[in-house]
Write a structure and sequence with these properties.
About 35% of the residues lie in helices and about 25% in strands. The protein is of the alpha/beta class.
Length: about 400
Protein backbone atom coordinates (compact mmCIF):
# COMPACT_ATOMS: atom_id res chain seq x y z
CA UNK A 1 0.00 0.00 0.00
CA UNK A 2 0.99 3.66 -0.29
CA UNK A 3 1.54 5.04 3.18
CA UNK A 4 -1.51 6.60 4.73
CA UNK A 5 -0.87 9.85 6.60
CA UNK A 6 -2.17 8.59 9.96
CA UNK A 7 -0.71 9.52 13.35
CA UNK A 8 -1.34 6.02 14.75
CA UNK A 9 0.72 4.52 11.93
CA UNK A 10 3.65 6.86 12.64
CA UNK A 11 3.43 6.36 16.39
CA UNK A 12 3.64 2.57 16.14
CA UNK A 13 6.34 2.81 13.47
CA UNK A 14 8.60 4.88 15.74
CA UNK A 15 7.94 2.63 18.73
CA UNK A 16 8.84 -0.52 16.79
CA UNK A 17 11.96 1.14 15.35
CA UNK A 18 13.04 2.21 18.84
CA UNK A 19 12.68 -1.41 19.96
CA UNK A 20 15.19 -2.40 17.26
CA UNK A 21 12.75 -4.21 14.99
CA UNK A 22 13.80 -4.66 11.37
CA UNK A 23 11.84 -2.99 8.60
CA UNK A 24 10.36 -6.35 7.58
CA UNK A 25 9.29 -7.06 11.18
CA UNK A 26 7.78 -3.58 11.42
CA UNK A 27 5.82 -4.15 8.19
CA UNK A 28 4.41 -7.46 9.43
CA UNK A 29 3.41 -6.20 12.87
CA UNK A 30 1.78 -3.07 11.48
CA UNK A 31 -0.12 -5.13 8.93
CA UNK A 32 -1.43 -7.34 11.74
CA UNK A 33 -2.26 -4.37 13.96
CA UNK A 34 -4.14 -2.30 11.38
CA UNK A 35 -5.56 -5.13 9.29
CA UNK A 36 -4.10 -3.83 6.03
CA UNK A 37 -1.09 -4.96 4.00
CA UNK A 38 1.92 -2.72 4.62
CA UNK A 39 5.02 -3.60 2.62
CA UNK A 40 8.64 -3.34 3.74
CA UNK A 41 9.23 -0.70 1.03
CA UNK A 42 6.38 1.38 2.44
CA UNK A 43 8.02 1.26 5.87
CA UNK A 44 11.43 2.13 4.40
CA UNK A 45 10.10 5.09 2.41
CA UNK A 46 8.13 6.45 5.37
CA UNK A 47 11.15 6.24 7.66
CA UNK A 48 13.15 8.22 5.13
CA UNK A 49 10.53 10.98 4.81
CA UNK A 50 8.77 11.32 8.10
CA UNK A 51 9.46 14.13 10.58
CA UNK A 52 11.24 12.60 13.53
CA UNK A 53 10.22 14.92 16.32
CA UNK A 54 11.81 14.25 19.67
CA UNK A 55 12.43 10.56 18.93
CA UNK A 56 15.83 11.54 17.53
CA UNK A 57 16.83 12.93 20.94
CA UNK A 58 17.54 10.62 23.85
CA UNK A 59 18.60 11.55 27.36
CA UNK A 60 21.84 9.78 28.21
CA UNK A 61 24.56 10.08 30.81
CA UNK A 62 26.14 13.47 30.28
CA UNK A 63 23.37 15.12 28.28
CA UNK A 64 21.15 14.56 25.27
CA UNK A 65 22.25 12.43 22.36
CA UNK A 66 21.04 13.10 18.83
CA UNK A 67 20.79 10.18 16.41
CA UNK A 68 19.29 10.39 12.95
CA UNK A 69 18.10 7.19 11.28
CA UNK A 70 17.23 6.80 7.62
CA UNK A 71 16.53 3.31 6.37
CA UNK A 72 19.25 0.97 7.64
CA UNK A 73 21.70 3.77 8.41
CA UNK A 74 22.00 5.64 11.70
CA UNK A 75 24.21 8.67 12.24
CA UNK A 76 25.10 10.05 15.68
CA UNK A 77 25.15 13.83 15.44
CA UNK A 78 26.53 14.25 18.95
CA UNK A 79 25.77 14.59 22.66
CA UNK A 80 24.80 18.00 24.04
CA UNK A 81 24.54 19.28 27.63
CA UNK A 82 21.02 20.74 27.28
CA UNK A 83 18.03 19.64 25.26
CA UNK A 84 17.67 22.91 23.38
CA UNK A 85 21.21 22.56 21.98
CA UNK A 86 20.33 19.02 20.91
CA UNK A 87 17.21 20.29 19.10
CA UNK A 88 19.18 22.99 17.26
CA UNK A 89 21.85 20.48 16.17
CA UNK A 90 19.17 17.98 15.11
CA UNK A 91 17.22 20.53 13.06
CA UNK A 92 20.36 21.84 11.35
CA UNK A 93 21.48 18.33 10.42
CA UNK A 94 18.02 17.31 9.17
CA UNK A 95 17.82 20.48 7.06
CA UNK A 96 21.08 19.49 5.38
CA UNK A 97 19.90 15.91 5.06
CA UNK A 98 16.65 16.81 3.30
CA UNK A 99 18.12 18.94 0.53
CA UNK A 100 18.14 19.24 -2.39
CA UNK A 101 14.63 18.27 -3.35
CA UNK A 102 13.58 18.07 -7.00
CA UNK A 103 9.88 18.50 -7.65
CA UNK A 104 7.91 18.48 -10.89
CA UNK A 105 4.24 17.91 -11.61
CA UNK A 106 4.96 14.25 -12.37
CA UNK A 107 7.42 13.25 -9.64
CA UNK A 108 9.54 14.25 -6.65
CA UNK A 109 13.18 13.30 -6.06
CA UNK A 110 14.76 13.38 -2.62
CA UNK A 111 18.41 12.29 -2.35
CA UNK A 112 21.95 12.82 -3.61
CA UNK A 113 21.70 14.06 -7.18
CA UNK A 114 24.25 14.38 -9.98
CA UNK A 115 24.39 18.15 -9.73
CA UNK A 116 25.73 18.06 -6.18
CA UNK A 117 29.42 18.85 -6.68
CA UNK A 118 31.94 20.17 -4.15
CA UNK A 119 31.51 23.92 -4.12
CA UNK A 120 34.34 26.15 -5.33
CA UNK A 121 34.67 28.06 -2.06
CA UNK A 122 35.05 24.87 -0.06
CA UNK A 123 37.59 23.39 -2.49
CA UNK A 124 39.53 26.67 -2.59
CA UNK A 125 39.70 26.93 1.21
CA UNK A 126 40.86 23.33 1.54
CA UNK A 127 43.60 23.93 -1.05
CA UNK A 128 44.59 27.20 0.63
CA UNK A 129 44.81 25.57 4.07
CA UNK A 130 46.77 22.60 2.69
CA UNK A 131 49.34 24.98 1.17
CA UNK A 132 49.52 27.02 4.38
CA UNK A 133 50.26 23.91 6.43
CA UNK A 134 52.86 22.69 3.92
CA UNK A 135 54.53 26.12 3.82
CA UNK A 136 54.65 26.29 7.59
CA UNK A 137 56.31 22.88 7.74
CA UNK A 138 58.81 23.88 5.02
CA UNK A 139 59.77 27.03 6.95
CA UNK A 140 60.29 24.99 10.12
CA UNK A 141 62.44 22.48 8.22
CA UNK A 142 64.55 25.33 6.83
CA UNK A 143 65.60 26.35 10.34
CA UNK A 144 66.27 22.95 11.92
CA UNK A 145 69.26 22.68 14.19
CA UNK A 146 70.81 20.63 16.97
CA UNK A 147 72.87 22.70 19.42
CA UNK A 148 75.46 20.94 21.56
CA UNK A 149 77.23 22.81 24.34
CA UNK A 150 80.32 20.56 24.47
CA UNK A 151 83.33 21.58 22.30
CA UNK A 152 83.40 18.21 20.58
CA UNK A 153 80.60 15.85 19.48
CA UNK A 154 80.38 12.65 17.51
CA UNK A 155 77.59 11.93 15.06
CA UNK A 156 77.22 8.32 13.95
CA UNK A 157 75.44 7.82 10.65
CA UNK A 158 73.90 4.41 10.08
CA UNK A 159 71.78 3.05 7.23
CA UNK A 160 70.75 -0.02 5.25
CA UNK A 161 70.34 -2.42 8.16
CA UNK A 162 67.72 -4.33 6.10
CA UNK A 163 66.33 -6.03 9.17
CA UNK A 164 64.29 -9.00 7.97
CA UNK A 165 66.58 -10.00 5.11
CA UNK A 166 68.19 -13.43 5.67
CA UNK A 167 71.52 -12.03 4.47
CA UNK A 168 71.62 -9.30 7.13
CA UNK A 169 74.15 -9.73 9.94
CA UNK A 170 71.54 -9.15 12.64
CA UNK A 171 74.01 -9.66 15.50
CA UNK A 172 76.19 -6.88 14.14
CA UNK A 173 73.15 -4.63 13.74
CA UNK A 174 72.32 -4.84 17.44
CA UNK A 175 75.91 -5.09 18.73
CA UNK A 176 76.81 -1.83 17.00
CA UNK A 177 73.59 -0.18 18.18
CA UNK A 178 74.61 -1.00 21.75
CA UNK A 179 78.13 0.32 21.12
CA UNK A 180 76.80 3.57 19.63
CA UNK A 181 74.39 4.10 22.53
CA UNK A 182 77.29 3.67 24.98
CA UNK A 183 79.67 6.14 23.29
CA UNK A 184 80.33 9.45 25.02
CA UNK A 185 78.96 12.68 23.52
CA UNK A 186 77.62 10.69 20.58
CA UNK A 187 74.43 11.31 18.60
CA UNK A 188 73.08 8.57 16.32
CA UNK A 189 71.47 9.38 12.95
CA UNK A 190 69.58 6.82 10.85
CA UNK A 191 69.00 7.35 7.15
CA UNK A 192 66.76 4.68 5.79
CA UNK A 193 66.21 1.04 4.92
CA UNK A 194 66.27 -0.11 8.51
CA UNK A 195 63.79 -2.81 7.46
CA UNK A 196 63.96 -5.06 4.39
CA UNK A 197 60.16 -4.79 4.01
CA UNK A 198 59.88 -6.59 0.64
CA UNK A 199 56.21 -5.74 0.11
CA UNK A 200 56.18 -4.34 -3.43
CA UNK A 201 55.04 -6.64 -6.22
CA UNK A 202 58.39 -7.30 -7.87
CA UNK A 203 59.97 -8.36 -4.55
CA UNK A 204 57.19 -10.47 -3.04
CA UNK A 205 58.99 -13.63 -4.14
CA UNK A 206 61.71 -12.83 -1.59
CA UNK A 207 59.24 -13.68 1.18
CA UNK A 208 58.43 -17.17 -0.12
CA UNK A 209 61.38 -18.96 1.47
CA UNK A 210 62.35 -16.32 4.01
CA UNK A 211 62.27 -17.73 7.58
CA UNK A 212 61.92 -14.15 8.90
CA UNK A 213 58.38 -12.84 8.56
CA UNK A 214 57.57 -9.18 7.91
CA UNK A 215 56.05 -9.09 11.38
CA UNK A 216 59.35 -10.37 12.83
CA UNK A 217 61.21 -7.64 10.96
CA UNK A 218 59.04 -4.81 12.27
CA UNK A 219 59.30 -6.15 15.84
CA UNK A 220 63.10 -6.00 15.52
CA UNK A 221 62.86 -2.57 13.84
CA UNK A 222 60.93 -1.32 16.86
CA UNK A 223 63.49 -2.69 19.33
CA UNK A 224 66.34 -1.26 17.27
CA UNK A 225 64.94 2.29 17.35
CA UNK A 226 64.33 1.98 21.08
CA UNK A 227 67.91 0.79 21.68
CA UNK A 228 69.66 3.25 19.38
CA UNK A 229 67.67 6.38 20.30
CA UNK A 230 68.47 8.34 17.11
CA UNK A 231 68.45 12.14 17.14
CA UNK A 232 67.73 12.40 13.40
CA UNK A 233 65.71 9.91 11.35
CA UNK A 234 65.51 10.01 7.54
CA UNK A 235 63.52 7.45 5.57
CA UNK A 236 64.62 5.11 2.80
CA UNK A 237 62.96 3.39 -0.11
CA UNK A 238 62.45 0.04 1.65
CA UNK A 239 60.86 1.25 4.88
CA UNK A 240 59.25 4.62 4.08
CA UNK A 241 58.65 4.80 0.33
CA UNK A 242 57.24 1.32 -0.12
CA UNK A 243 55.06 1.42 3.00
CA UNK A 244 53.59 4.80 2.04
CA UNK A 245 53.10 3.81 -1.60
CA UNK A 246 51.33 0.59 -0.64
CA UNK A 247 49.27 1.83 2.32
CA UNK A 248 49.38 5.63 2.39
CA UNK A 249 50.73 5.43 5.94
CA UNK A 250 54.14 6.55 7.18
CA UNK A 251 54.57 3.67 9.61
CA UNK A 252 58.23 4.41 10.51
CA UNK A 253 57.13 7.86 11.71
CA UNK A 254 54.72 6.19 14.15
CA UNK A 255 57.59 4.02 15.40
CA UNK A 256 59.79 7.09 15.80
CA UNK A 257 57.06 9.01 17.61
CA UNK A 258 56.90 6.23 20.17
CA UNK A 259 60.58 5.45 20.73
CA UNK A 260 62.41 8.61 19.58
CA UNK A 261 59.78 11.36 19.93
CA UNK A 262 62.31 14.21 20.00
CA UNK A 263 64.19 13.10 16.88
CA UNK A 264 64.13 15.35 13.81
CA UNK A 265 62.24 13.34 11.20
CA UNK A 266 62.00 13.49 7.43
CA UNK A 267 60.86 10.93 4.89
CA UNK A 268 63.40 11.99 2.23
CA UNK A 269 65.70 14.94 2.76
CA UNK A 270 66.85 16.49 6.03
CA UNK A 271 68.72 19.77 6.23
CA UNK A 272 69.90 20.54 9.74
CA UNK A 273 72.58 22.72 11.29
CA UNK A 274 74.75 20.75 13.71
CA UNK A 275 76.15 23.33 16.11
CA UNK A 276 78.98 22.41 18.51
CA UNK A 277 79.89 25.06 21.09
CA UNK A 278 78.52 27.69 18.71
CA UNK A 279 80.41 26.48 15.61
CA UNK A 280 77.92 25.56 12.90
CA UNK A 281 78.19 22.66 10.45
CA UNK A 282 75.33 22.88 7.92
CA UNK A 283 74.37 19.29 7.09
CA UNK A 284 72.20 17.55 4.53
CA UNK A 285 71.12 13.93 4.98
CA UNK A 286 69.43 11.75 2.35
CA UNK A 287 69.10 8.03 1.79
CA UNK A 288 69.50 8.38 -1.98
CA UNK A 289 71.33 11.14 -3.83
CA UNK A 290 71.14 12.14 -7.46
CA UNK A 291 74.15 11.11 -9.49
CA UNK A 292 76.49 8.11 -9.30
CA UNK A 293 80.10 7.47 -10.26
CA UNK A 294 81.96 4.18 -10.62
CA UNK A 295 85.11 6.01 -9.44
CA UNK A 296 83.78 8.06 -6.53
CA UNK A 297 81.26 6.49 -4.13
CA UNK A 298 80.40 9.88 -2.57
CA UNK A 299 79.73 11.54 -5.92
CA UNK A 300 76.07 12.16 -5.00
CA UNK A 301 76.61 14.36 -1.91
CA UNK A 302 79.55 16.16 -3.54
CA UNK A 303 77.50 16.89 -6.66
CA UNK A 304 74.62 18.12 -4.49
CA UNK A 305 76.91 20.51 -2.64
CA UNK A 306 78.34 21.85 -5.89
CA UNK A 307 74.90 22.92 -7.09
CA UNK A 308 73.17 23.96 -3.85
CA UNK A 309 76.21 25.10 -1.81
CA UNK A 310 74.19 25.18 1.41
CA UNK A 311 75.91 22.44 3.40
CA UNK A 312 79.41 21.25 4.27
CA UNK A 313 78.52 17.77 5.52
CA UNK A 314 76.55 15.54 3.14
CA UNK A 315 75.46 12.04 4.17
CA UNK A 316 73.93 9.20 2.15
CA UNK A 317 73.47 5.46 1.90
CA UNK A 318 71.51 3.12 -0.37
CA UNK A 319 74.19 1.79 -2.72
CA UNK A 320 75.70 -0.80 -0.30
CA UNK A 321 79.19 -0.22 -1.69
CA UNK A 322 81.14 0.86 1.36
CA UNK A 323 81.21 2.85 4.54
CA UNK A 324 83.43 5.84 3.88
CA UNK A 325 84.02 9.46 4.91
CA UNK A 326 85.81 11.67 2.38
CA UNK A 327 86.95 15.26 2.60
CA UNK A 328 86.35 17.51 -0.39
CA UNK A 329 86.43 21.17 -1.38
CA UNK A 330 82.96 22.54 -0.68
CA UNK A 331 83.12 25.81 -2.59
CA UNK A 332 86.18 27.03 -0.78
CA UNK A 333 85.25 25.45 2.55
CA UNK A 334 86.23 22.19 4.16
CA UNK A 335 83.55 19.69 3.22
CA UNK A 336 82.92 16.08 4.09
CA UNK A 337 80.90 13.48 2.19
CA UNK A 338 79.76 10.35 4.06
CA UNK A 339 78.44 7.14 2.58
CA UNK A 340 77.07 4.54 4.97
CA UNK A 341 77.69 0.87 4.36
CA UNK A 342 75.12 -1.92 4.61
CA UNK A 343 74.62 -4.64 7.20
CA UNK A 344 73.41 -6.91 4.39
CA UNK A 345 76.60 -8.95 4.41
CA UNK A 346 75.26 -11.59 2.02
CA UNK A 347 73.41 -9.73 -0.69
CA UNK A 348 71.86 -11.90 -3.39
CA UNK A 349 70.65 -8.85 -5.32
CA UNK A 350 74.16 -7.35 -5.38
CA UNK A 351 75.53 -10.64 -6.68
CA UNK A 352 72.87 -10.85 -9.39
CA UNK A 353 73.57 -7.29 -10.53
CA UNK A 354 77.37 -7.53 -10.29
CA UNK A 355 77.77 -4.67 -7.83
CA UNK A 356 81.28 -3.86 -6.52
CA UNK A 357 82.51 -5.75 -3.46
CA UNK A 358 81.84 -3.89 -0.22
CA UNK A 359 84.66 -2.76 2.07
CA UNK A 360 82.78 -4.23 5.04
CA UNK A 361 82.26 -0.96 6.91
CA UNK A 362 78.75 -0.14 8.10
CA UNK A 363 78.11 2.89 10.31
CA UNK A 364 80.34 5.94 9.81
CA UNK A 365 81.21 8.36 12.62
CA UNK A 366 82.07 12.03 12.15
CA UNK A 367 83.58 14.03 15.00
CA UNK A 368 82.83 17.75 14.93
CA UNK A 369 85.41 19.85 16.77
CA UNK A 370 84.60 23.45 17.70
CA UNK A 371 88.15 24.53 18.58
CA UNK A 372 89.54 23.69 15.15
CA UNK A 373 86.19 23.95 13.26
CA UNK A 374 87.00 20.60 11.63
CA UNK A 375 85.25 17.35 10.79
CA UNK A 376 87.04 14.02 11.24
CA UNK A 377 85.58 10.83 9.81
CA UNK A 378 85.88 7.29 11.17
CA UNK A 379 84.95 4.22 9.17
CA UNK A 380 85.56 2.12 12.29
CA UNK A 381 83.08 2.51 15.14
CA UNK A 382 85.53 1.04 17.62
CA UNK A 383 88.17 3.67 16.77
CA UNK A 384 85.56 6.41 17.04
CA UNK A 385 84.47 5.09 20.44
CA UNK A 386 88.08 5.02 21.69
CA UNK A 387 88.69 8.54 20.36
CA UNK A 388 85.60 9.97 22.06
CA UNK A 389 86.48 8.17 25.30
CA UNK A 390 89.90 9.84 25.37
CA UNK A 391 88.64 13.21 24.11
CA UNK A 392 85.86 13.53 26.71
Amino acid sequence: MLWQAHPEYDKLLLELEAEGATQLEIARRMSDTFGVFISRDAVKNRLARMPRGESDIREVSGGYRVRITRGHYTHTVGTFPIKEDARVARDKFVAELNKPKVETEEYTVQGVTAIEMPDFDGAYERAREAFRQKSLRALRKASQRIDISAPRACFVFVADQHIGAPGTDIERVFDEARLISSMKNTYPVTLGDIAENAIIQKLLHLNLNNPISITDAWIMFEKYIELLGPKVIVGGNHDNDWTQNMTGMDYPRHMAARYAPDAIYDTDDCRVILSVAGVEFPTRIRHKWKGNSIYNPTHGPERGQKWDQDFVLGVGGHIHTCGVARQFNAGGKHGMAVLCGSYKALDTFASEQGFPKSNGSTAVAVVLDADSATMTGFESLQLAAEFMDKAS
